[in-house]
Design a protein that fits this description.
heterotrimer, B: Ubiquitin-like (UB roll), Fumarate Reductase Iron-sulfur Protein, Chain B, domain 2, 2 domains, two-stranded antiparallel ribbon, elongated, C: alpha+beta, FAD/NAD(P)-binding domain, Methane Monooxygenase Hydroxylase, Chain G, domain 1, 20 strands
Chain lengths: 221, 251, 637
C-alpha cells in the first residue's frame, strides 16, 4: 500500500487531507446551523428536529462517526504539518513584518486549538450534559430549554460568541486556502476563490451568533 | 544620512550568533544597500575588526546570490527587488536597520549573513529538468507552443533561486520555488513527457530537505523579487495530486 | 611557444564536418575511464560538463558561487544569435559568419567563426528541447529580433533575460547529471592553480571557500570556462566575483594569453552615480532597437530633456551611421558617446551620459507594446535611478562589459598546454577585436555543447586514462605554492583593504586602457601598475584567517592577479599600433575619428608567454589568414 501511504505522508498529501476533511467539516457546520436556526421557529420546531434526528439513530451514528474521523484526520494532519513547520523554522526573526499574510493565515494553529477546546466543551455542555447537571433532568429532546438556560447566562453566551468568531477566523483562511491546496486556481476565478472564505465565514458567523445573542438580548423568550 | 545597523554576526555554522550594532554616517541615498555594507566593511577593516560576510555577486538582481532579511522583510522594504537593487532612498536619516540571514533549517548559516542554499540545487537535481541529452533534438520550431502558455512558462522561469520565499515563509516552505520550476516544465510541451515523475521526485526531495509546507499565507509571493505568482503553487499541488493518482506503481 | 592553430584543411564549409570525422574517438566503454575537470559553471562550463557526462566521462565541475545556477552568464539580457533564418530575411550560416568576422574587425580566426555560425542553430534546438521559454508569436513559433551589427533579425530571446533562461537550461542539464552521479559538483570552490605533469594539464589546486581547505584534484584533462577579465577595471558590468585568477594562473604555468587588450565597452549602461559605486548595470542593447540615442546640439545645455526641441538635438548615431543608425556595433556606439561627452555635450550631473529616448517608440507603438518588450529593463532602470523611463529619456554611458581576449586556443579549443582546454569567454577565439551583441551566449553554448565534447575526445584518445595520481610531486609543489601565497597575503597586515587597491587599479585601467588609448597613457600605466602592485604586497590588509570563510582573502587573491594582469593588458595595447574593434589607439584614426586598422602589420593574434617574475613576457603572433572574406574597412555608414 505504499502508493497510498507515501503520498499521504508527503507534505502535499497531508495538506490534501487537511483540505478535504476541512471541506467536509464546513459542510457539517452548514447542516448544524440550518438545524439550529429552527430555534427561531419556536420551541416545537427545534425539539421536533432533535427528536427526528434521534429517531434515525443508526444514520445519526454513521454521520457522527464520519464527523469524528474527519475531525481526527484534520487534527492529526494539522499537528503533523505544524510540527514539520516548526522544525523547518526553529529560529525566528528578531524583527518580522508580514507583507501580505492575513491575521487568520498566520494563526491557523492557534485558532484551531481554541476551536478544538470549544468543541470539547460544547459536547460536554449540550450533548453529554456533564457541565450542567440541571440538564440531566430535562427531557431528551428539549433542546430549546437547554439553549434558553445556557444563553441567558451572559458568561456562557459571550464565551460561545468569542469561540464562534475564532472558528470563523479559522474558516476565513481555511476555506479559500483549500482551493489553492487542491490546485483549483485560475486567473479569472481567483478573486472569487479568495473571497469565498471570508464571505462564507461571515455568513456562518451571522447565523451562529444570532442564536445566543437573540436569547441573551431577550428576542427569543 | 546616519543609520544604526543591527547585524547578525555568527562565526560559522557551529557557533552561536548574536546581533551587533554599528553606527554608520554619511550614507548617500544613491548607494545600493550592498554598497552601504561595503562602506561599513571598509570601516570595520580600518578599525581592525572583522568585516560582515554577506553573499552577493551580480549586483543587478538576476543571479539570486544576495540574501538578507532587512527589518523583517526578505530583500527589504521595496517590493519586487533583490537586496542588491534596493537603494538607500528607501530609508531615512536616523533609521534603525535590522539585518538578518535567511532563517530556515534547510538553509544553514555559513557565516554572518551567508547561508547554504544547496538544498535548492538538490531539489532541481532530483527532477527539475527535461531529460534530453545534447544533440539529436528536433528543430526548435517543430512543436509550436501557444504564446500564452510560453508566457506563463516564462513567468515561472524567471525565478532566480534566491530563497526569499523560504526566508519569508513562517514555515520555511519551498513550494513557490518548486512550484515555479514544476510549472515552467509542465506547461511546455517539451516538459510534459515526464511531468508526473518529475513532480513526485521534486516534492519528495523538497520534503526530505527539511522545508516546511505551504499554509497559503502568500508571504512568498509578496517578497519574491521576480514577483512569481502563487498560482504556481496551486499548479504544483494539482500536478502532484494528478501524478499521484495516475502513477503506475502497483499496490 | 608553439602556436599551431590546427585548422583543418579543405573548404571552409567542410572543415568542421571533415574534422569531426578525422578526429579520434574514445569508445563508449572507455569513456568512463577518463576524468575531466571543468572549472566554471556558466554557459560554456555547465554545457560542457553536462555534455561530457552524458557521453560517459567522469566529470568534476567547480564554481566559486554557491550554486552553478549563479554564474554570470545569467546576467546576459538581450538574446542569442542563430542563423536559422526563420524570418526569411536573408540570413545564412555564411552571413552570420561574415557579420561576426566583420563585427570583430577582422581579428578572429575564420575557421572557428564559421564553425560557430554552423552550430548556432543546434543551440536553439537544444535549448527549446530543455524547456527554455523563448519568446513566441501568436502562431506558436519562435520570435526573432534584430541586434547591433546585423541587418537581419536572427536574435532569439526570452524577454530581457535570455542569459538567465539559457543558463538555467544548461544548469538543468548539469543538475540532471549531478543527480545521476556522473558529475561531481564542487560549489564555493576556487581554482588557485593548474597542475602540469610532463607539460600536460593534469589537475588543479582548489580552495574550499567555506572551510579554507586547500585540496588537489586530478584529471586526464582540464577545461577552463571561467569567463572574462572585465573586473580588472574594478567597475564593469561583471559580477563582483568574476576574476581572472584561473586563466591568469594557467598563463603563469605556460598557457599563452591572446589579445588581452581587446575589451568591449558596452554602450548602454547606467551612468556612474558616485564614488561608492561597486558595479555598473547594463541596459540591454536590444533597447537600441526602439530607443533613439541623442545629446543636445549645444555644449553645456542644462535644460531638461523634454524642453529641448527636436531641432536642437543631435541624434548622432543616426547622423553618422545612417544605414545602421542606433544599431551600430557596440564599439562604435560607445566611442561616439565618449566623443559627445568629451565635446561637452554629455548629460546628467556628471556630464558623462547620453540620452536613450523612447518617446518616439511609445508614440508609435503605444506604452503597452514598449512595456511588453522592455518592461523589466525599464523597471530595473527606474529602481536604480529613481527616474521613470516612460516619461524621461534614460541616461546611459558606456561601461566595460566583455573581454574578447583570453587564453589562446587552437581549432580544438585546446591551449598550447596539452590537455588544457578553454571555452567560452575565457578563450580568445571567435570575437576578434569586438563582439557583436547576442553572440556571447552563442559562443559559450557552442563551445560547451557542440565543440568541446568532440574535440576533447581527440585529445583523450591520444593519452592513457587515469595515469595521474594526486601524490605526484607536481601536485605537492603546486599546492605548497598556493599555500605559501595565501599565508603571505594573510601576514602582510598593512593598512589598505584589497578593495581599495582594486579601485585604484580600476582608475588607472579605465583612464589609460579604456575606451581610447594612447602611447603616453599606456606607458604611464605601465609605470603606475607595478608601483601599485608593490604597494599591495607591502600594505594590503587581509582580516581573518585562511581556515575559514573569508571574503577578504578571496578578494585579495583576485586583486593580486588583476594587478599583474592589468599590466599585461596595457603592454598588449601598447604594442598593437592600430585601432581595431574595442581597441582604439588615438594615434590611429581617420580624419573623421573612425578606427584605422593596420592589416599589414597587425592581422594577427598577439599571444603572450610568461617568462617568470623578473622578465617581461614574450609576444608571439598567430597570423590570421583570410581566405573567404576580403579584409575591408568596417563601415556601418
Amino acid at each position: 500500500m505504499s502508493w497510498v501511504s507515501r503520498p499521504l505522508n508527503s507534505s502535499i498529501g497531508c495538506k490534501v487531507i487537511m483540505s478535504v476533511t476541512g471541506l467536509l467539516l464546513v459542510g457539517f457546520l452548514l447542516a448544524h446551523l440550518s438545524g439550529n436556526l429552527l430555534v427561531f421557529a419556536g420551541e416545537e420546531a427545534i425539539n421536533l428536529y432533535a427528536k427526528t434526528l434521534r429517531d434515525y439513530l443508526p444514520i445519526l451514528w454513521l454521520l457522527r462517526i464520519g464527523l469524528i474521523v474527519m475531525a481526527v484526520l484534520h487534527i492529526f494532519s494539522g499537528v503533523k504539518l505544524t510540527r514539520m513547520n516548526s522544525k523547518a523554522k526553529p529560529v525566528k526573526y528578531k524583527v518580522k513584518q508580514s507583507v501580505k499574510a492575513s491575521f487568520a493565515s498566520r494563526y491557523m494553529g492557534l485558532t484551531g486549538l481554541v476551536v478544538l477546546a470549544f468543541i470539547a466543551y460544547h459536547l460536554a455542555h449540550l450533548t453529554f450534559r456533564f457541565t450542567h447537571p440541571a440538564f440531566q433532568s430535562l427531557g431528551d429532546y428539549d433542546v430549546y430549554k437547554m439553549l434558553m438556560l445556557s444563553f441567558s447566562n451572559p458568561v456562557l453566551a459571550i464565551g460561545y460568541c468569542i469561540c464562534v468568531i475564532l472558528l470563523m477566523v479559522h474558516l476565513s483562511h481555511g476555506v479559500s486556502s483549500l482551493f489553492q491546496t487542491l490546485g483549483i486556481n485560475h486567473k479569472k476565478y481567483n478573486g472569487l476563490i479568495r473571497s469565498i472564505g471570508p464571505a462564507l465565514s461571515t455568513l456562518l458567523a451571522i447565523g451562529y451568533l444570532s442564536i445566543p445573542l437573540s436569547i441573551l438580548l431577550g428576542f427569543i423568550k | 544620512m546616519k543609520l544604526a545597523l543591527h547585524i547578525w554576526r555568527q562565526k560559522d555554522s557551529n557557533s552561536e550568533g548574536k546581533f551587533e550594532s554599528y553606527q554608520l554616517d554619511q550614507v548617500s541615498p544613491d548607494m545600493s544597500f550592498l554598497e552601504m555594507l561595503d562602506i561599513l566593511n571598509e570601516k570595520l577593516i580600518s578599525e581592525d575588526k572583522e568585516p560582515v560576510a554577506f553573499d552577493h555577486d551580480c549586483r543587478e538582481g538576476i543571479c539570486g546570490t544576495c540574501s538578507m532579511v532587512i527589518n523583517g522583510v526578505a530583500h527589504g522594504p521595496q517590493g519586487g527587488t533583490t537586496t542588491c537593487q534596493l537603494h538607500m532612498q528607501s530609508f531615512k536619516d536616523g533609521d534603525d536597520i535590522y539585518i538578518e540571514p535567511w532563517r530556515a533549517t534547510a538553509f544553514p548559516i555559513v557565516k554572518d549573513l551567508v547561508t547554504d542554499r544547496s538544498a535548492f540545487d538538490r531539489v532541481i537535481q532530483a527532477g527539475g529538468y527535461v531529460s534530453v541529452s545534447t544533440g539529436g533534438v528536433p528543430d526548435a520550431n517543430a512543436t509550436p507552443v501557444p504564446k500564452p502558455i510560453a508566457d506563463l512558462a516564462m513567468d515561472a522561469a524567471t525565478c532566480i533561486g534566491c530563497g526569499a520565499c523560504v526566508a519569508a515563509c513562517k514555515n520555511s516552505s519551498a513550494m513557490l520555488f518548486v512550484g515555479a520550476k514544476v510549472s515552467q516544465l509542465s506547461l511546455l510541451p517539451q516538459g510534459q513527457v515526464e511531468k508526473g515523475r518529475r513532480v513526485i521526485k521534486m516534492v519528495s526531495q523538497m520534503d526530505s530537505e527539511g522545508f516546511g509546507n505551504c499554509t497559503n499565507t502568500f508571504e512568498c509571493e509578496a517578497v519574491c523579487p521576480k514577483e512569481i505568482s502563487v498560482s504556481n503553487i496551486a499548479r504544483l499541488n494539482r500536478e502532484y495530486i494528478a501524478a499521484t493518482l495516475a502513477s503506475d506503481e502497483e499496490s | 611557444m608553439k602556436l599551431d592553430a590546427n585548422i583543418p584543411t579543405g573548404p571552409l564549409e567542410q572543415k568542421w564536418t571533415r574534422h569531426k570525422f578525422e578526429m579520434k574517438l574514445v569508445s563508449p566503454a572507455n569513456k568512463r575511464k577518463y576524468k575531466v575537470i571543468v572549472v566554471g559553471s556558466g554557459l560554456a562550463g555547465a554545457a560542457g560538463a553536462a555534455s561530457l557526462a552524458e557521453l560517459g566521462y567522469q566529470v568534476e565541475c567547480f564554481c566559486y558561487q554557491d550554486s552553478p545556477r549563479r554564474a554570470h552568464s545569467i546576467a546576459a539580457q538581450g538574446g542569442i544569435n542563430a542563423s536559422k533564418n526563420y524570418p526569411s530575411d536573408g540570413d545564412s550560416v555564411f552571413r552570420l559568419f561574415y557579420d561576426t568576422i566583420k563585427g570583430g574587425d577582422f581579428r578572429s580566426r575564420e575557421a572557428n567563426v564559421y564553425r560557430l555560425a554552423e552550430v548556432s542553430g543546434n543551440i536553439i534546438d537544444q535549448a527549446v528541447a530543455q524547456g527554455v521559454p523563448f519568446a513566441r508569436d501568436y502562431g506558436g513559433l519562435l520570435d526573432n529580433r534584430s541586434f547591433g551589427g546585423a541587418q537581419v533579425s536572427r536574435t532569439f530571446y526570452a524577454r530581457g533575460q535570455t542569459g538567465q533562461q539559457l543558463l538555467l537550461g544548461a544548469y538543468s542539464a548539469l543538475s540532471r547529471q549531478i543527480g545521476l552521479g556522473t558529475v561531481k559538483m564542487h560549489t564555493r570552490s576556487e581554482m588557485l592553480d593548474l597542475v602540469l605533469i610532463d607539460g600536460a594539464a593534469k589537475g588543479i589546486i582548489v580552495r574550499n571557500m567555506v572551510t579554507g581547505k586547500i585540496t588537489r584534484h586530478y584529471a586526464d584533462a582540464v577545461v577552463l570556462g571561467t569567463g572574462g577579465y572585465g573586473n580588472t577595471f574594478f567597475l564593469s558590468t561583471n559580477a563582483t566575483g568574476c576574476n581572472v585568477t584561473a586563466t591568469y594562473r594557467a598563463y603563469k604555468r605556460g598557457a599563452g594569453f591572446a589579445n588581452p587588450c581587446y575589451t568591449q565597452i558596452h554602450p548602454t549602461c547606467i551612468p556612474v552615480s558616485g564614488d561608492h559605486q561597486s558595479k555598473l548595470t547594463l541596459m540591454s542593447e536590444s533597447l537600441r532597437n526602439d530607443g533613439r540615442v541623442w545629446v543636445p546640439l549645444k555644449k553645456g545645455d542644462k535644460r531638461r530633456p523634454g524642453e529641448i526641441p527636436d531641432s536642437e538635438r543631435d541624434y548622432y548615431l543616426e547622423r553618422k551611421y545612417p544605414s545602421f543608425g542606433n544599431l551600430a556595433p557596440r564599439d562604435i556606439a560607445s566611442r561616439s558617446a565618449k566623443e559627445a561627452c568629451d565635446d561637452g555635450r554629455g548629460v546628467g550631473e556628471t556630464g558623462l551620459g547620453v540620452y536613450l529616448d523612447f518617446a518616439d517608440a511609445i508614440k508609435r507603438l503605444g506604452k503597452k507594446a514598449v512595456s511588453e518588450r522592455y518592461g523589466n529593463l525599464f523597471h530595473m532602470y527606474h529602481k536604480i535611478t529613481d527616474e521613470n523611463p516612460y516619461e524621461v529619456p534614460m541616461r546611459i554611458y558606456p561601461a566595460v562589459h566583455y573581454t574578447m581576449g583570453g587564453l589562446w586556443v587552437d581549432y580544438n579549443l585546446q591551449s598550447n598546454i596539452p590537455g588544457l582546454h578553454v571555452i567560452g569567454e575565457a578563450n580568445f577565439s571567435d570575437h576578434g577585436a569586438n563582439r557583436l551583441g547576442a553572440s556571447a551566449l552563442m559562443q559559450g553554448l557552442a563551445d560547451g555543447y557542440f565543440v568541446l565534447p568532440y574535440t576533447i575526445a581527440n585529445y583523450l584518445a591520444s593519452i592513457k586514462a587515469g595515469e595521474v595520481n594526486p601524490e605526484h610531486k607536481a601536485f605537492e609543489e603546486t599546492e605548497n605554492k598556493v599555500k605559501e601565497r595565501v599565508t603571505k597575503l594573510l601576514n602582510i597586515n598593512g593598512k589598505k583593504s584589497p578593495a581599495q587597491f582594486h579601485k585604484e587599479l580600476g582608475h588607472i585601467m579605465w583612464d589609460k586602457c579604456g575606451m581610447a588609448r594612447n602611447k603616453a597613457g599606456l606607458e604611464e600605466a605601465l609605470k603606475k601598475i607595478p608601483e601599485l602592485r608593490e604597494e599591495f604586497w607591502q600594505n594590503v590588509k587581509v582580516t581573518g584567517s585562511g581556515e575559514q570563510f573569508n571574503q577578504q582573502l578571496e578578494r585579495a587573491g583576485r586583486v593580486a592577479d588583476f594587478l599583474e594582469f592589468g599590466e599585461l593588458m596595457c603592454r598588449d595595447a601598447l604594442v598593437r599600433e592600430e585601432s581595431c574593434g574595442g581597441h582604439f589607439r588615438e594615434e590611429h584614426q581617420t580624419e573623421e575619428g573612425e578606427a584605422k586598422r593596420n592589416d599589414e602589420d597587425y592581422a594577427h593574434a598577439a599571444v603572450w608567454e610568461y617568462q617568470g617574475e623578473s622578465s617581461d613576457p614574450k609576444r608571439h603572433e598567430e597570423q590570421l589568414i583570410f581566405e573567404n572574406v576580403k579584409l575591408a574597412t568596417r563601415s556601418y555608414k
